[in-house]
Design a protein that fits this description.
binds pyridoxine-5'-phosphate; 8-stranded parallel β-barrel; about 50% helix; globular; single chain; 8 strands
């Protein structure tokens, strides 16, 4: 079908900052990576300002906002400190994620059902500042319904459990996880939410996600930054773009031509 909007590719540059911070100092510069990603066709840049500042720092976020010309997706915990930094930074979007200091990465989705009272005023404050609010959640019916009730514009479905199951050869579980993602994407779109996906995606899993008709955006970081060691950022992003286009071509609504 001609009118389908292409799936947007958001490039997460956190792990350029991880490499920088391993040595201290200024190099490699995550903003340079963001500008290269933009030149290579990324549709947006994602960066996560963690409470412990283990990769992205406050100054990185300010420079990203000032220097890139594509939408900035500010990933953050739903805390007063982060809401205040986001309102000051004015990114295109904020993706609210759970955060525990001891974890290596964002391991589960946000518990929107359990944290409604805490999330509600923070979502309202971000929306009042004209920032699109996305909630990073597992593809569970009650979490999706709660995200809609709280007035989020977007849900980002957590693809990590699916990707982990696939990588570890737990194929039956992987298929069950993928079925959950597909059903969640459908439910969210029916409720009027824009549907994104992210966490742990590589070429093959991004292709499969892009084949789900409701997916509007995929946010990908660790794999792309790793691939950039071998292919360069431009090569990695170009190869990812081709995978996403292959996925889109598999959508039921794209076959009619
Ligand atoms: N989306 C969200 C909400 C995330 O928290 C992360 C990890 O920071 C990603 C996407 C990207 O995940 P990965 O680095 O595994 O591609």
């Amino acid at each position: 079908m001609g009118g389908v909007t292409p799936v947007r590719l958001g490039v997460n540059i956190d792990h350029v900052a991880t490499v920088r911070n391993a040595r201290g100092g200024q190099l490699p510069d995550p903003v340079r990576a963001a500008l290269l990603a933009q030149a290579a066709g990324a549709d947006g840049i994602t960066a996560h300002l963690r409470e412990d500042r283990r990769h992205i720092r406050d100054a990185d976020m300010a420079r990203l906002k000032a220097e890139i010309g594509i939408p900035l997706n500010f990933e953050m915990a739903a805390t007063d400190e982060m809401v205040s930094i986001a309102i000051h930074t004015r990114p295109h979007a904020c993706c609210l994620v759970p955060e525990k200091r001891e974890e290596r990465t964002t391991e589960g989705g946000l518990d929107v059902v359990g944290q409604k009272a805490d999330l509600s005023p923070r979502i309202a404050a971000l929306k009042a500042a004209d920032i699109r609010v996305s909630l990073f959640i597992a593809a569970e019916a009650e979490q999706i319904a709660a995200a809609s009730e709280l007035g989020a514009a977007v849900v980002e479905l957590h693809t990590g459990a699916w990707c982990d199951a696939l990588a570890e050869g737990r194929d039956t579980e992987a298929e069950a996880e993928f079925a959950r993602l597909a059903a969640g994407a459908q439910q969210a779109a029916t409720l009027g939410l824009e549907v994104h996906g992210g966490h742990g995606l590589d070429y093959a899993t991004a292709e499969r996600m892009a084949a789900l008709p409701q997916i509007a955006e995929l946010n990908i970081g660790h794999f792309l930054i790793g691939e950039a060691i071998f292919l360069g950022l431009e090569g990695a992003i170009g190869t990812m773009r081709k995978a996403i286009i292959r996925g889109e071509a598999q959508r039921p609504d794209s076959r009619a031509g």
